[in-house]
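User: structure tokens for this one?
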Amino acid sequence: MFRRTFWFTAGAAAGVWATTKVNRKLKQLTPESLAAQAANKAIETGHRLKDFALDIRDGMAEREVELGEALGLQHHPDAELPAPRRFAVIESHSSYKNDIKTQYNGNEDH
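Assistant:
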């Protein structure tokens, strides 16, 4: 008699456990639950991307400082900017320019 009672109790416990597991799974698969899970994953991914971007920015700043030190550049925010470069303009012969204009004019119909 003890064996029957034991197996009956074990079967009832297994049934309750299985029913509870199935009900939890069904609740997880409702549209509202799936939407909430997707939103949580999106937020988590956004945080990871933000952390990644901040790490990249920090690395860029460190590398810029390293390159500045290696090249001997000193960056002072209060220093004046260097004068703009001036390029020498070489004037060509005006007759050469006129020859080119008369040879080809893209606006004319030929």
